[in-house]
Amino acid sequence: MNHRTFLKQLALGALVAAAGLTACSKKEAPPPAPTPVAAPAPAKPAPLKAAFIYVGPVGDAGYSFAHDEGRKFAAAQLGDKVVTTYVEKVAEGPDAERVIRDLATQGNKIIFATSFGFGDSMVKVAKDFPDVYFEHATGYKTAPNLRVYEARFHEGAYLAGIVAGKMTRTNTLGFVASFPIPEVLRNIDAYTLGAQSVNPKVKTKVVWVGAWFDPPKETEAAKSLINGGADVLLQNTDSTAVLQEAERSKKYAFGWDSDMSAFAPKAHLGSVALNWGGYYVKAINDVLDHTWKTGETKWGVKEGMTDLVKVADFVPADVKAKVDAARQGLKDGTLAVFTGPVVDNTGKVQLAKGVVADDKWLGSVNFYVKGVEGKVPAGK
Amino acid sequence: MIRLEARTAPSQLMGVLSPLLAFATTMLVAGAIFAALGKDPLQGLQVFVLEPFNGLRALSELGLKSTPLILCALGLALSYRSNVWNIGAEGQFLMGAIAGGGLALWVTTAELAIPKLAFFPLLVVAGALGGAAWASIVALLRDRFNANEILVSLMLVYIANLLLSWLVFGPWKDPNGFNFPQTVSFAANTEVPRLIPGMRLGWGLPVALLAALAMWLFMFRTYRGMQLQVGGPAPLAARYAGFSSRAAIWTTLLVSGGLAGVAGAFEVAGPMGQLTPHVSSGYGFTAIIVAFVGRLHPLGTILASLVLSTFLIGGELAQSRLGLPSALTGIFQGVLLLALLACDTLVQYRPRWSRSS
Amino acid sequence: MNQLALLVAATLSAGTPLALAGLGLLLNERAGVLNLGSEGIMLVAAVAGFGTALLTGNEWAAFAAGALAGAALSAVFGWLVIWLNTNQYATGLAISLFGSGFSAFVGIDLVGKQLVETPAPSVPLLRDLPFLGEALFKQHPMVYLVMTLAGAAAWFLYRTRAGLVLRAVGESPASAHALGYPVRRIRLAAVLAGGALCGVAGAYLSVVYTPLWVEGMVAGRGWIALALTVFATWRPARLLLGAYLFGGVTMLQLFLQAQGVQVAPQFMTMLPYVATVVVLVLISSNPLWIRLNMPASLGKPFFPGA
Lengths: 380, 357, 306
Hints:
The complex is a heterotrimer. By secondary structure, chain A is α/β, with parallel strands linked by helices. Helices cover 37% and strands 18% of the residues of chain A. In chain A, helix 8 links the parallel strand 8 and strand 9. Chain A is globular and about 60 Å long. Chain B is mostly helical. The longest helix of chain B has 30 residues. The radius of gyration of chain B is 22 Å and the shape is globular. Chains A and B meet through helix 1, strand 2 and helix 3 of A and strand 1, helix 1, helix 3, helix 10 and helix 12 of B.
């Protein structure tokens, strides 16, 4: 057995390689990326170069996907005034700085970094490129050429809560959570407050998965919540797994980040969707019009950056009416999700009666409101 | 029919040709994929392979990315030559990062005014101790209980990962960090000194290169180093060479663990500047590949880590320049390694025409 | 009580992909080959399985596609490792790297697609038993299949001639060769079978467990399956138990959270790995035990006296 027919092996290797190549060539449509350098037309000024970096793959159907939809929207709206590029799956660590710096060197005039963990890298690079504009989503550090933007995601979660409060039979809601940061805690609290506004008996159970994106674990967490008695789930992890598990277990759930109605026709009550496109158009226009100024932007239902969309047909009309009323309230300013008294689940008053929460308060939420079970992990 | 015939001595020519052949194969596959995606293959290859070398900053980034790979792979090359199969460099890297990061965190929170140049050697020592301590568990269990080092070192990777995760989610979490799993940003005096102002490349690279030189001297110019490679942990052969198998296990594991630990410490106190759950992007595992691509030779490791870093950075550039998906990096790396491993057969074997089927 | 039943049910389901992949790797390792490429193989199989399910709407076709994809990728591994004598660790890692990249690449168009929901299966009559019905008999057929498979693997390894030969190849390839057994072909067969089982595990994840495709969705389960083989000291029945233990720890931790109990999840997750090291130390410290348990030539290449 010590002589081997090399050809046979060669053929095997070639076969595998060929199989690989066929699979590749089948994929005719390249990923939705623009041709980077379009030859500038002589008469018009060269298009502005805008770049986006995402923490996940654009194909996550969730958070990074929503940002990429925003990018495409902006590119379509602004036509030949802008050329956009993106880099996906950038790790929140040393790699981010290199990617951002490279994008700046490449002549991009505005760079959007769409995850919290890119903050320090953005600060460092922004210092070295004073004539490039930097936009950091969900961050808090600003500079003369670095500003931050985020969505009042909790307003969408509140609207979802209204539906959940009406649709639950066990009066127990479930929430699959990622990391105990203020943004996520706000969403849990807002979801609960929304539900309590129509059904005071509602309780919320929370399971932390310690990841933004781990579909099998999200499934397991959803299962645990359902087994614990929860029958309407919301999550702020980024895949469709929770929704699909609810569909399988004949419970209800919501989509998150983008319209996920197609994934669970029977379980889907609505999707808390993000729409970054409007902001991206505005930000790029600010650069084009030379009106870009640093600062913080927090947009919510009023500006259309977040909303509860695709509310299911089987949701009763009176519930839909309640959602519409709340949405109207959020739009015209007569309703704020966090209006005192806000009491946490230990009985402590976190926001005094009649006080409307300001951005500083919202940015430091680290408690569960009354009705949420358990303790914030390692929270103080 | 072609059949393989063992060579009496490894072919020198093929030793040189094999990597080139593997590289050419990878480029062919890459070019084909670019063409299939409707991109100009030459332009694609240019971005993937040449662009990472374009300019001083690019070179600095390449050096930065290569540093941990070189350090980890050096130790692995030594242990593989000695027949000790440490595949847990990732865990040792993480423990070095925890030790180095812990030291930097302590200096930061205690506001110690220790000068940068004095902190650097402390950092190296902390990292080395952290990594070596973790590897010493493997050595102890192998030496004392005969537990397979491949499996123990692999298990310890998971445990180190979870330990790091617990630290940054729990006791070491930045109190003002909005509950994000990360420590405070370390004070400026704990940072690994930089080589070129304004660039991220630090003293880690020269240390890695010096380590490579030292490793080369040890492997090929000292009696002990030669003995180690002859003996390894095989008791009979080692006794013949006058070297104890126990010494081989302890030496190689402590050295490789220590080097991986230093790499971890450099990473946290260098480009990261804080501890997060994502300290390593798999450097310890990539280093195994680097060690083999580098022919288990100290100087080879340097070249091999450059090649792998090039692909990593090239992958990012291909996204922003050409709009190619990031998944290509993994494919190209995989193809390169598999092709290289296959081509390496030609070093030991000679393809021969023969009429027998 | 019902809570407990549900926890058992969830554990069985979570342990199934781990057990599938673990059994495959166990066969590999019994023949003396350590395949560190399992994560990549599972990913490629997951995308192949999902794509097939999307096309055919049949999950068994998807499992077959997963098995095929897994076997194909491990054929590359086997060819390199067994015939070209490349280093097993480096080759396995290269396969892992390639597999994650390749699956992400061919799967780009599959992201966000959804499968037709199939009704939750259950065993007639038995599902109505109190407690046991909820705990054991409302599962996907694959859950029962993997239990049978573990039994079959044990029977094969210890009760059949072929199994004996396979173990002999893993114990002492040189003696097996001397006895006239085609060591390399047997090893390749084990590698192919192992890859196929890893493939079914990957397809189960993307088609049944979490019916969607996203890149990297195997999320480390290939590595856990590797740890499992050691934990089980290469015994199929123990491997099955180990898979349920690994799956159970995760589920228990999430369950406790849903009950409002906070635990440091890292330490609970760590337990099985620590246990694995302890088990390894226990069996290794006794020369007899280790000979009874661990394939002696694991990870070592075999040169048929050229």
